[in-house]
Amino acid sequence: MKLFKRQQPPFAKHSKRDIPTDLWTKCESCGQLIYNKALDENLRVCAKCDFHFPLPARDRVDLTLDPGSFEEWDAGLVPGDPLQFAVPRPYREKIKEEQAQLDMLDACVTGTGTLAGRQVVLGVTDSRFMMGSMGSVVGERLTRAIERATDNKLPVIVISGSGGGARMQEGMFSLMQMAKTSAALMRLDEKDGLFLSVLTHPTMAGVLASFATLGDLIIAEPRALIGFTGPRVIESTIRQKLPDGFQRSEFLIEHGLIDLIVHRRDMKTTLAKITEMLAP
Ligand SMILES: [Zn+2]
Asked: 53 CA to middle of ligand 1, Å?
């Protein structure tokens, strides 16, 4: 029998894990704990290290277009389950869960609105919904938006936040969206249309390898991770250490993949200036 029982220190009940997540967010770049209200007021940019957190698609629309001008297109399109994909869990179930949680039917919002008074077509992918991956609905919405822009001679802006690339659960139906969106952009280009591609953290794989790098101008937010395969996979494949900042916006502008790096607070005015200069 123990003579003394070890008492739990009173603070043991309140570990770091108990910090209410609805009040604070930890910066994934510098580790700073940021009060959510302050983060929202700063457009979800870390005030300490300037890391640009991913933005929900509808917030991005609000930040880009003139207030109240957005008219959404094809909002009712819903993904099918052509492969009856079931591993590690049924695709149908996963989709339903994401739809309910995020109040959107798939990872992309498209439509038209005005940017500093000029009508534009806007598409935004949302990295929260299955990592912003492109399945048949994302590809179809973007393609229809680009086709309407071509018919009506409107500039197209697509803001990508897609860590997931092509959506593996839809197999070939997903991969063919890469060709479909690219072909639609080629037809826009043949009619001298303008396409501005904005890459945000993260934009990867099949999204980067199709429409996202076909912009007349390719603009990125600071320090966004942009690449085909992620740095960890590359390092473990080639067994070499990658250079500092590899696949970040600042590295990519030096190597010619992107044309401009624009801070979130300046994005709307920059897009407005460019469309005014270059739109047909
Ligand atoms: Zn930070």
From this structure: 9
Q: Which of 51, 71, 93 corresponds to the end of one domain?
A: 51
Q: Please tell me the pTM assigned to this model.
A: 0.87
Task: Compute CA distances 6 → 3, 9, 262, 275, whole Å.
Answer: 10, 9, 57, 69
**9 pLDDT more than 70:** no
**What's residue 249's pLDDT?**
95
Spell out where the chain has E strands: 24-26, 33-35, 71-73, 108-115, 118-125, 156-162, 195-204, 217-220, 226-227, 260-261
Do 240 and 206 share a domain, yes or no?
yes
pLDDT, tens only, 182-224: 999 999 999 999 999 999 999 999 899 999 999 999 999 999 9
Residues 44 and 141 in one domain: no
Domain with 29, as residue range(s), is 19-51
CA 27–ligand 1 middle distance (angstroms): 5
Per residue in 56-85, pLDDT (tens digit) is 999 999 999 999 999 999 999 998 888 889
Please tell me the distance between residue 16's alpha carbon and the centre of ligand 1 in angstroms: 18
Question: To which residue do tokens 């085909």 refer?
Answer: 228
> Token digits for 99?
């739809």
Ligand 1 centroid–CA 49 distance in Å is 4
Q: Which residues have a beta carbon within 5 Å of ligand 1, which is an ion?
A: 27, 29-30, 32, 46, 48-49, 51
Q: If pLDDT is split at 50, 70 and 90, which confidence band does 120 have?
A: very high
Residue 109 and residue 240 in one domain: yes
Q: Do residue 25 and residue 152 come from a single domain?
A: no
How many A from CA of 103 to the centre of ligand 1? Answer: 28
In whole angstroms, give the CA distance from residue 266 to residue 269. 6
